[in-house]
Amino acid sequence: MNLTQEELSEQSGISVRTIQRIESGTEPRGQTLKILARTLGVDQVALLSKSEEAKPATPAIIKLINISSLPICFIPLANVALPVIIMLAKKQFTPMVRQIISLQIAWSIASIILFMLAAFSKKWFAFENNYMMVVMVVLVLSNVFIILRNAAELDKRGRLFIQLGFSII
Fold first, then answer.
1. Are 63 and 106 members of one domain?
2. Is 4 exposed, middle or buried (0-12, 13-18, 19+ CB in 10 A)?
3. Distance CA 13, CA 16 (A)
4. Residue 9 CB: number of other CB atoms within 10 A?
5. How many domains does the chain have?
6. For 158, left (φ over 0), alpha (ψ -120 to 50), or beta?
7. Range of the domain at 26
8. Contact assessment for residue 8 and residue 39, using Cβ atoms and an 8 Å cutoff
9. 164 in a structural domain
10. Average pLDDT for residues 46-68, to the nearest whole number?
11. Do 47 and 68 belong together in one domain?
12. Is the dihedral of CA 124, 130, 146, 101 positive or negative?
């Protein structure tokens, strides 16, 4: 609407300092979001999506963040470190990047829980010695599958194939 910060402040009743924070990247919430949306004549969702579009992630960066988990996918929680470092270094905080990292965090937590359950079940059911190795291989292969399947879908359609219904970060 080509308004200055002062003009927007006068029209909305929101302080200039709050508008400056929002412009620098702080996401408006609650009443501030409602007032800004009403003042600017846009939907609240559109107002938030505009702030995310200001920092577009290139497909190459998204693919890099996804594939960066692969070299250390056999170490739960370590497979999150490299993608987070790349996300922070490249300042890519888009929903897709957050989803990739959230998926790796969720997989890490699930794999630790499954590994612990497998260790207890080995003792309870007297499984063979190779049982734990098989469990570890299955867990690593499942993570490799998640990473590679998402990489293939990113190449084909520019979206994730396997994703969570929520974001952890």
1. yes
2. exposed
3. 9
4. 18
5. 2
6. left
7. 5-53
8. yes
9. no
10. 71
11. no
12. positive
The pTM is what?
Answer: 0.61
Structure-token match 């734990």, residue found:
132
Q: CA separation (Å) from 61 to 56, 72, 137? A: 10, 18, 29
Classify residue 169: in a domain, yes or no.
Answer: no
The distance of Cα 44 from the centroid of its chain, to the nearest Å, equals: 21
Most confident of the following: 23-32, 46-55, 147-156:
147-156
Domain assignment present for 45: yes
pLDDT in tens, 104-119: 999 889 988 998 898 8
Cα–Cα distances (Å) from 26 to 17, 47, 87, 89, 143, in that order, read 11, 13, 18, 19, 34
**What are the pLDDT digits (tens) for 133-143?**
888 899 889 99
Hey, how many other C-beta atoms are within 10 angstroms of the C-beta on 50?
11
